[in-house]
């Protein structure tokens, strides 16, 4: 995880003032997350173990250092937009994702203990902009 001082974060936020000034749509928030991950494409990130088996309150509190969610939380723009921490539940709320979508993006059972940032970006991009036509319809049904 990259650490920045408050002054550095403020300068970054000012450079991205347009995005920070207004409220980003769900698609814009997801796209920003994809861009952040693609900027670190080869980085190894951790998955979350057994998200589908946890009770909601436990699942919502799940987190890992160096996870795709921690990449989003490290971004000052997404924090200015309202991302409060790097837990499963907060990412689900902030990005307006369903448990099935979160499971597809983050779960150990699909990916093993780790994944690349590019792999996470591809999974999020597919949720943000599913294919058109019959394949897209099937995707939306499967994604819940």
Describe this structure in a few short sentences.
This protein is mostly helical. It has helices at 6-15, 17-21, 26-38, 56-61, 68-73, 76-81, 88-94, 99-106, 108-111, 117-128, 133-143; strands at residues 44-46, 114-116. The chain is globular, with a radius of gyration of 15 Å.
Notes on the protein architecture:
With 144 residues, the chain is mainly α. The protein has one domain. It is 61% helix and 4% strand. It has helices at residues 6-15, 17-21, 26-38, 56-61, 68-73, 76-81, 88-94, 99-106, 108-111, 117-128, 133-143, and strands at residues 44-46, 114-116. It has a two-stranded antiparallel sheet with strand order 1-2. Helix 3 packs antiparallel against helix 10. The longest helix has 13 residues, at 26-38.
Mean pLDDT: 87
Percent range for β-strand residues = under 5%
* Order of strands across the main sheet: 1-2
Q: Considering DSSP H and I runs of 4 or more, what fraction of the residues is helical?
A: 55-70%
- Number of folding domains? 1
Low-pLDDT residue intervals, each spanning 5 or more residues: none
- Tally of DSSP helical segments: 11
Number of DSSP-assigned strands: 2
> What series of H and E elements makes up the topology?
HHHEHHHHHHEHH
Q: Strand pairing plus helix content: what structural class?
A: mainly alpha
N- to C-terminal separation? 32 Å
- Largest sheet data: 2 strands, antiparallel
Backbone CA Rg: 15 Å
Shape: globular
């Amino acid at each position: 995880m990259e650490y920045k001082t408050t002054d550095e974060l403020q300068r970054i936020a000012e450079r991205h003032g347009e995005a920070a000034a207004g409220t980003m749509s769900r698609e814009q928030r997801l796209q920003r997350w994809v861009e952040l991950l693609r900027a670190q494409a080869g980085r190894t990130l951790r998955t979350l173990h057994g998200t589908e088996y946890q009770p909601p309150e436990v699942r919502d509190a799940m987190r890992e250092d160096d996870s795709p969610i921690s990449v989003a939380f490290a971004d000052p723009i997404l924090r200015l937009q309202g991302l409060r921490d790097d837990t499963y539940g907060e990412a689900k709320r902030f990005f307006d994702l369903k448990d099935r979508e979160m499971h597809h993006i983050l779960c150990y059972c699909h990916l093993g203990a780790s994944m690349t940032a590019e792999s996470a970006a591809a999974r999020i991009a597919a949720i943000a902009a599913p294919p058109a036509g019959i394949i897209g319809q099937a995707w939306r049904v499967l994604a819940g």
